[in-house]
């Protein structure tokens, strides 16, 4: 079963949006899919670093 999605509205810097769109296209993903991937990866790394400090 796929996780539920929640629609959000955020304001991003224009240069980040353009760069992210390019990277998403290169990875054959939608903008939203790519942002999910980037955020998930960042959170996982942050959690791993936190565990190492404990």
Q: How is this fold's topology laid out?
A:
Layout (H helix, E strand, L loop, with lengths): L13 H13 L4 H23 L1
Question: How would you portray this structure in words?
Answer:
The chain is mainly α and 54 residues long. It has one domain. 67% of the residues lie in helices and 0% in strands. It has 2 helices and no strands. The chain has helices at 14-26, 31-53. Helix 1 (14-26) packs across helix 2. The longest helix has 23 residues, at 31-53. The chain is extended and about 35 Å long.
Q: What class do helices, strands and sheet pairing give?
A: mainly alpha
* Sequence of secondary-structure elements: HH
Overall number of strands? 0
Distance between the termini: 33 Å
> How large is the count of helical segments?
2
Q: What's the overall average pLDDT, rounded?
A: 94
**Overall outline:** extended
- Helix share, percent: 55-70%
Q: How large a portion of the residues is in β-strands, by DSSP E? A: under 5%
Please supply descriptive tags for the structure shown above.
54 residues; mainly alpha; 2 helices
